Amino acid sequence: MTSDRTRDRLIERLKEQGIESNLVLERIRNVPRHLFVDEALASRSYEDTALPIGLGQTISQPYIVAKMTEALIDSVKGDFVLEIGTGCGYQTAILASFFKKIYTVELIRSLLLKTKQRLRDMNIYNVQFRHGDGWKGWQKYGPYDGIIVAAAAPELPNDLLEQLNIGGVLIIPIGPPREQELILVKRNHDHYETKNLGSVSFVPLVKGK
Ligand code: SAH
Questions:
Q1: Which tens digit of pLDDT belongs to each residue from 111-136?
Q2: CA of 53 to the centre of ligand 1 (A)
Q3: How many Å is the maximal CA-CA distance in the chain?
Q4: By the 8 A CB rule, do 86 and 59 touch?
Q5: What whole-number distance in Å separates Cα of residue 112 and Cα of residue 106?
Q6: What pLDDT, in 10s, does the model give residues 56-76?
Q7: CA-CA distance, 128 to 55, in Å (whole number)?
Q8: Is 83 helix (H, G, I), strand (E, B) or coil?
Q9: Catalytic amino acids?
Q10: Ligand 1 center to residue 17 CA distance, Å?
Q11: Which terminus of the chain has a lower count of CB atoms within 10 Å, N or C?
Q12: Which fold has domain 56-200?
């Protein structure tokens, strides 16, 4: 169920859908996605679909993780990435092999604690975790070369724009529930430049207190 063949099928499917980076495809093949979901769902973990992880949250669809990662490594020149919406840490684990350091923020504490342990068990050490509201980013370690948001916002969060380095890139789903566009924002010296990467569907980026 979690065999090489099931993983190969997933990789083939991602290629068919337009993922071109061999580095990203290899990373997805090697990260054991079945360890990020409940045992009862492990048999479905190499399907190209989002799955529930409890507390109303989901593990992102592999295609979306691949697409966001591909866009990020294509456009980010530096080493430091901020991730908002850690969830089960699947995207974090994929990103960790491409950047020197990942800073990740999650609103649900119990989820974060489990994820911290999970990534440690996988010997992934270049990740710093924070329990907090991602709308505010994580100012302490900014500005960042890249920021990736795994939950949908109705508008671009100002604090995240401000925590981008010059030349830095933010990737974020923007729009109402179930019909968002994945937006890439690049910070230039005197303006922000945006590009639409296509339609997506994410859980909402909840406003913290
Ligand atoms: N990155 C995950 C998917 C995360 S789903 C993966 O690889 O599968 C989105 C996550 O964003 C959820 O865990 C949710 O709790 C979190 N979230 C929602 N609003 C948030 C906020 N304001 N700040 C931080 N995390 C938030």
A1: 999 999 999 999 999 999 999 999 99
A2: 11
A3: 51
A4: no
A5: 6
A6: 899 999 999 999 999 999 999
A7: 22
A8: strand
A9: 60
A10: 25
A11: C
A12: Rossmann fold (3.40.50)
The residue whose CA is least distant from atom 11 of ligand 1 is 85
Distance, CA of 9 to chain centre:
22
Question: For residue 96, what are the CA distances in angstroms to 51, 58, 67, 91?
Answer: 22, 20, 16, 9
Residue 24 gets the label, from left (phi > 0), alpha (psi -120 to 50) or beta, of: alpha
How many residues in the chain? 209
Contact 20, 12 (CB under 8 A): no
Instruction: Report how far ligand 1's centroid is from the alpha carbon of 7 (Å).
Output: 25
The DSSP secondary structure of 172-189, one letter per residue, reads: EEESSTT-EEEEEEEE-S
Q: Is the CB of 169 under 6 A from ligand 1?
A: no
Identify the residue whose C-alpha is closest to ligand 1 atom 8.
59
pTM above 0.70, yes or no: yes
Give the C-alpha separation, 192 to 167, whole Å.
10
Nearest CA to ligand 1 atom 16: 85
Q: What's the CA-to-centroid distance between 150 and ligand 1, angstroms? A: 6
Which of 83, 108, 122 gets mutated to test ligand 1 (max ligand atoms within 8 A of its CB)? Answer: 108
- Does residue 5 or residue 169 have the better pLDDT? 169
Domain boundaries, the chain: 56-200
